Every structure is written in C-alpha cells, then in structure tokens.
Amino acid sequence: MRVTAPARLRGKLDIPGDKSITHRALMLNAAAEGEARIDGFLDAADTRSTLECMRALGAEIEQVAEDALVVRGRGRAGLHEASDVLDCGNSGTTIRLLSGLLAGFPFLSVLTGDGSLRGRPMGRIVQPLRALGARMSARADGTLPPLVIEGGTIAGGQRIETPVASAQVKSAILLAGLAAEGATTVAEPSRSRDHSERMLAAMGAHVAVEDATVTLTPPAGDLQAIDVRVPGDISTAAVWIVAATLHPDADVLLTGVGLNPTRAGVLDALREMGADIEELESRTVGGEPVADLRVRSATLRGVRIEGEVIPRAIDELPLLALAGTVAEGETVIADAAELRVKESDRVATTAAALRALGAEVEERADGLAIGGSARLRGGRVEAAGDHRLAMLGAAGALIAEGDSQIEGADAVGVSYPAFWSDLERLGSA
Q1: Which stretches of 136-282 are DSSP H helices?
Q2: CA angle 313, 230, 115 (to 5 degrees)
Q3: DSSP state of 149
Q4: Which residues pair with 160 in a beta bridge?
Q5: CA–CA separation, 382 vs 386, rounded Å?
Q6: I need a surface site. Which of 87, 104, 109, 263 has the fewest CB within 10 A?
C-alpha cells in the first residue's frame, strides 16, 4: 500500500470492537449455559479463528447481523472432541486461552496455527497447565505448537506464579481452574489486562483480585451465558491517537473506545509526553469503561517508558516509539522484552520500520532508545507479517515527507479489516 501524508487529518471514526474481549465473549459463552448475544463483535481473522474453533468443539454460534452474534451454550457438557485439528490461525489469544479451557475436558484436542503462530512460545502455558494436572505436550520439548491436550484432572488449591505479566498466560490458568474443585490463584509480577476476570465474575465465578494476584473459585455448576456489548479496541484507536497527535494539522474524534485501566497505558504515556487527548461522554458498556476521544495536534517531549505501564501498553509500544521519533529529546522504552515474542520480534521490526522512515533508533535487549526531533521521510516499511507493524508504518507515513510504501499491507486483516478505508477517510476529509 502506498501512503502519502495528507495536508490535514479530520473526521470521526467508530472504533471496531475490542479483539481481546471478542475472543473471551465467544469462548466463555460457548462453554456456558444459556443463550447470549454479542454486539460489537470484531469480525477479523483472529476472532474468526476462535469462532471456528468453538464451532468445531460443538458450540452453536449464529451471526445475526454484521457485528452481532448469538451463542447458544449448553454448558461444559455441550462441548465435545473436535473431529479434526483446531486451527488457531495467527491468533496467540486463541491457542493460549483455548488450551486452558480444554485442559480440564476428558477428550483429545490438537491445536495448531500458521507459520508465525507455530514459532511463538508456548512453554509459558504448558508448564503451569501441567502443574495444575493437565496432560499436554508440544513440539520442541513442550515449547512450540502444535499442542496436544489429553485433558486431565485439574487440581484445586493451586498457586501459580508467572515470570511475566501476560493476560494470555493468566487467562489460560484461570480457564483451566474452571474445572478444578477449589480455588486457583495466579500471581503476576505486575498486573496485566483483566478482561477475563471481569467476564468470569459476571458469569458466576468468584474472582478475588489483590494487586497483581487473582484467585478464581469456579461456580457450583456451569458458567451462565451473558450478553456482551464489545467496546471499541484501544489498540486499534491508538493508531489514530498517535497519528493525530503527531500530524501538524489534526482534529480527530474516535467514538466508543474502551478505557479499561489495565489497557490504557498508551494514554498515560502519551499524556506524559504532552499529547492533547480529551475524554468525552464517559460511560460503562458491558462492564467496561468507555469514552469518545478527541485528539488534536500536539508538540511532544521525550520520556522514559518502563515498569508497570509496559503490560498496560504492550501492543501500543511500537506506536509510542513512533511518537518518540518526533518528540523533543530522547525516548526510551525498557522492560519490554516481551515484544520479542509477538507476531514478529517487535523490537527488531519496529526499529527497522522507523529507520526506514529516517528515524534514529537503537535496539536494546528489552526495548528501544529513540532519538527525537526527527524529520521523517517516506520509505519502504516491511510489515513482516505483523498487523501492528503494517499499521505502524501507515501511521508514520501520515507524517513523513514524500511517499511511503507498506509491504505486506494486508496483514491488517488480522485485527482491523477496515483499516485502509478508514485511513483514506481521515486523510481526505
């Protein structure tokens, strides 16, 4: 895709549904008792992977509108062994959460995905799920997909301490805990996004949270299906928030953005840098805080981004690095080694993308050091099969001098199929 910086960015965008919440609404309602409607469903490649996996396991899911599904759950007894391998596509959320859910079922499941997913680390879920009693194996000595899950008896009263703050790992353990007799506790080094905890509690599980420690006690019977209205995805909105902040003539309204505090680190970091982000019409949607965001051009200063904000902004760190390229002074992103095991090595691919646009970037083991006050120029950005990198390249191109070319632009279909049409709308208003 070829992108040229527009003279101005103007307009209003309705932000597509949150990918993380869509996955969980599908998976948990399929394993629950009763009928539930999911409005604001994100129809993208990753969420389609979860949908098709749940159908293969016996769930009845009907699409009743462009962004609405009805899930008819029959409890845990309604799920059965799939007749084929479960294909999770490119979705790390699908394979990790589904592994946890299936760990307590008495049947065989084999989970795999595309070439990228088969290279992503799975030891981080295999080890704790085995510790809970699940019988499972994986390629490369239990570290890479495909995953083979034979089920097992999940022991209650267990406490698992995870070495990294990861909502996918935490959620896999909690979902396995639904099959336990007694409580399951997960302790993280810092708190990760809490969509699973919120939804499980709403469906009848007892969830206790203390700092970065979560304890789940399953309900006496099945989870109860709940209607879900999915808020807009802050990771999707972040592309436009950063682009509008950096563009010299921008005024953009983003509607229905989910502002869960465990996901809003990108806003905290940008405001520390000096961004002009106004929250309007604050409200609660499906148990999640939501607001419309008005974003206008701003002059930024370099900052150090590290510590507890990292897991709250993990998917937006490449965009924060882009913001750092034009900020006054150096910006450092640290404590972010987790970026290296995403859909691509996002430390390396982010550095390469920003250098292609003329930025000065130093790659470090756990993050990046970004020289500020750059005048970005058009370049050739490789998405490396990563949807976040394709959108990063486009956001950079919106403020660069000259034309830019985004190679592998179709990667955006994983999370944001309408991305390129929305970009054209903002740039032509």
Answers
A1: 139-142, 167-177, 195-202, 234-246, 265-273
A2: 60
A3: E
A4: 186
A5: 9
A6: 87
- 363, with CB counted inside 10 A (0-12, 13-18, 19+), is middle
Whole-structure pTM value = 0.94
Tell which residue, 418, 405, 94, has the closest CA to residue 236: 418
Closest by CA position to 239, among listed 137, 125, 319: 319
Rounded Cα distance, 21 and 350, in Å: 26
H or E element that contains 320: helix 317-326
14 and 38 in contact (C-beta within 8 Å)? no
Catalytic residues: 315
E strand or H helix at 72, and its extent?
Answer: strand 68-74
Q: What is the C-alpha separation between 86 and 119, in angstroms, rounded?
A: 17
Nearest one of 77, 41, 79 to 59, comparing CA atoms: 79
> From the CA atom positions of the chain, what is the Rg in Å?
21
Grouping H, G, I as helix, E, B as strand and the rest as coil, residue 54 is helix
Burial class (CB in 10 A: 0-12, 13-18, 19+), 312: buried
pLDDT tens digit string along 120-177?
Answer: 999 999 999 999 999 999 999 999 999 999 988 999 999 999 999 999 999 999 999 9
